[in-house]
Specification:
Elements: H1 10-15, H2 23-34, E1 42-44, H3 51-62, E2 74-78, H4 81-93, E3 99-102, E4 121-126, H5 138-150, H6 161-170, E5 173-184, H7 194-203, E6 206-212, E7 224-230, E8 238-243, E9 259-260, H8 275-288, E10 289-291, H9 292-295, E11 298-300, H10 307-310, E12 311-312, H11 314-320, E13 327-331, H12 345-353, E14 359-361, H13 370-382, H14 388-391, E15 407-409, E16 412-413, E17 419-421, E18 427-428, E19 433-435, H15 445-452, H16 456-465, E20 467-468, E21 474-475, H17 478-481, E22 485-487, H18 489-499, H19 503-511, H20 515-530, H21 535-553
Parallel strand pairs: 1-2, 1-4, 2-3, 4-5, 6-8, 13-18
Antiparallel strand pairs: 5-7, 6-7, 8-9, 10-22, 11-19, 12-14, 13-14, 15-17, 15-19, 16-21, 20-21
The structure holds S-adenosylmethionine.
Length: about 575
């Protein structure tokens, strides 16, 4: 079997989503898809330079399929004619054959439609193009979305190209047929793939996922998952396998162990964890954690319509002669300044003295002072009243201020979302969320939550419930934030009693960027002493959070403390 060939023109290949599959993976998937059936008909809908066609044709011939009938059994489609030319050359060199079709796969009617050029397949194999939604545009995107819709899967415009391709490809499959594909691991984690996850469970009688610990494609950054599915009628559970790399696939034949039942809806990010870590996370969560929503509902910050106008520095305030009564103190835009466990009056004053925008314009409705008129004049010159949000309110210059919350919640994070006590009692803008504690929350909650949230279960929960954005940023909308696991009120009280005397030291460590030491200390007290987990269990949870964080950030090395 020939090895995958290096790219000739990397940029053009990237635009077509052309990352060729290592032959060990293609062999494994083709062997499984064909099983022992010498008559199997197999389709690779985006065959590129025939890695899968070579594997399937070779396997069929091994099983006794006549060489001169292979073009009735092995089918490859690709829109790139030069790839198909190489594909045919390679097949011929091996004494193999296939029927190759140069076409946009989304333009090919499926067997249930008129004019389908292909028979129904026993197996669909391959590695669909991975083109992100930003590049996956125009006609080709519309065609792909309507092809998926034909199969009852409604994808949104954020879907990358592989999603619709997978669905359309399965329309060529017999009801009892087999699917064996390489897909991006984001299948498990991103919101736009939710309809695909639901459809996989609905369409197939058995779904197996194989996850790799190491990257498998030298020229593509995406981690991949192998999806091996068969039969029809739906399934409750998946089988899940973790392997180091493609070499480990050799030993795997029968997909019949490690059944998991994924959540009915939502992301399957936790499937990226080894079974024992996932089960431990689930158990500890059920026994000792509640959701953040139990303590209070995360809410959006003030939307001004033009933060750079409505948020003022002290210097601007003085320049226009605005009084403090015409403004409301706020935590300035952004969250970089929220480094410690609380945001204090002293922090606010330091930011004010450093020239940060610590005030929000918030005059009384009947304010008619000269100072305000002068400042509004500047806004008019800058076109602020035309901003969408300003047009929608009256007067345009009075943002609908959100009351000061008990805690701030940083919803865009690199490492982990933070809860910060709002000791300064300021309001805030929409660069963070706020949390007002429920009346029945423990009295210590506003001091204890920021520290105790720095435990491995909560951090792991953030990776599981949050969305991963470009550059590895983790985002949590209020609905996702409210699902974040937090120690139960009982556990919170006990752990806080043990830690409250160290609060000052831990706060300083956090402000110095030594968050790993703090998280370790919190794990020691909360997970080990209060909840009684073993050292191994606490370590497993720590490693699980670390591995998902690193997977998200796309870094393979462990971060140094504070790094
Ligand atoms: C990820 S590569 C995989 C190729 C091959 N199956 C493999 O695994 O090595 C994706 C291939 O899809 C082709 N492709 C992209 N969009 C396509 C479309 N709409 N219809 C058919 N082929 C397409 C590209 O030309 C590229 O060869």
């Amino acid at each position: 079997m020939s090895e995958a060939r290096p790219p000739v023109t990397p940029n053009l290949r990237k635009a077509r989503g052309a990352f060729f599959t290592p032959s060990a993976i293609a062999d494994f998937l083709s062997d499984w898809a064909i099983g022992d059936d010498p008559d199997a008909k197999v389709l690779d809908p985006t065959c590129g330079e025939a890695v899968f066609l070579l594997s399937t044709a070779a396997r069929l011939r091994e099983l006794g399929a006549p060489a001169n009938a292979l073009d009735q059994q092995v089918f490859g489609v690709d829109l790139h004619q030069p790839s198909l030319d190489s594909a045919m050359g390679l097949l011929e060199t091996e004494g193999l054959d296939a029927r190759l079709i140069a076409a946009d796969f989304f333009g090919l009617p499926s067997p249930s439609q008129l004019g389908c050029p292909l028979p129904e397949m026993d197996a669909v194999v391959g590695n669909p193009p991975y083109v992100r939604y930003q590049q996956h545009v125009g006609d080709s995107r519309s065609r792909s979305l309507s092809a998926a819709l034909q199969q009852g899967v409604r994808l949104n415009r954020l879907a990358s190209s592989w999603a619709a391709l997978l669905v359309h490809a399965c329309a060529f499959l017999k009801p009892e047929g087999r699917l064996a594909m390489v897909l991006p691991a984001e299948l498990l984690t991103v919101n736009y793939a939710e309809p695909i996850r639901l459809w996989l469970r609905r369409r197939f009688a058995a779904v197996n996922l194989v996850l790799f610990e190491r990257l498998q494609f030298a020229d593509a950054q995406e981690k991949v998952v192998l999806v091996v599915a068969q039969g029809s009628g739906g399934c409750d559970a998946f089988s899940l396998y973790h392997v180091e790399d493609a070499e480990d696939l050799r030993g795997m034949r029968h997909f019949n162990h490690l059944t998991v039942v994924p959540e009915d809806e939502g992301k399957w990010t936790d499937l990226l964890l080894p079974l024992r870590q996932r089960q431990l996370f689930k158990r500890v969560n059920q026994e000792h954690f509640v959701t953040l929503g139990t303590y209070g509902a995360p809410t959006l910050g003030t939307v001004t319509g033009a933060n750079d106008y409505f948020a003022l520095s002290e210097a601007t305030r003085l320049e226009y002669g605005l009084s403090e009564g015409q403004l409301a103190p706020i935590s300035p835009p952004g969250t970089k300044h929220l480094r410690g466990l609380s945001f204090t009056r002293r922090d606010w004053e330091a930011l004010r003295d450093a020239g940060e925008a610590v005030w929000l314009l918030y005059p009384l409705v009947d304010d008619d002072t000269e100072a305000l008129r002068a400042y509004l004049g500047i806004g008019e010159v800058r076109g602020v009243p035309e901003a969408y949000k300003c047009q929608k309110r009256s007067p345009w210059w009075r943002p609908p201020i959100v009351p000061a919350p008990d805690l701030f919640f940083t919803y865009m994070s690199h490492r982990y979302p933070k809860l910060v006590r709002n000791s300064a009692k300021t309001s805030f803008l929409n660069s963070m969320h706020g949390l007002r504690l429920r009346e029945d929350a423990p009295k210590s909650a506003s001091s204890a939550l920021p520290l105790l949230a720095l435990n491995s279960v909560t951090m792991l929960g953030a990776e599981v419930h949050g969305r991963s954005y470009g550059g590895g940023v983790l985002k949590m909308e209020p609905r996702e934030a409210s699902k974040l696991p937090m120690p139960s009120p009982e556990a919170l009280r006990s752990a806080w009693n043990l830690l409250r005397n160290e609060k000052g030291t831990l706060d300083r460590q956090l402000r110095d960027g030594r968050w790993i030491s703090v998280a370790k200390r919190v794990d020691e007290v909360l997970l080990r002493r209060v909840l009684g987990l073993s050292p191994n269990e606490a370590q497993e949870l720590y490693e699980a959070a670390l591995s998902l964080r690193e997977r998200r950030i796309g870094r393979e090395t462990k971060p140094a403390d504070g790094g």
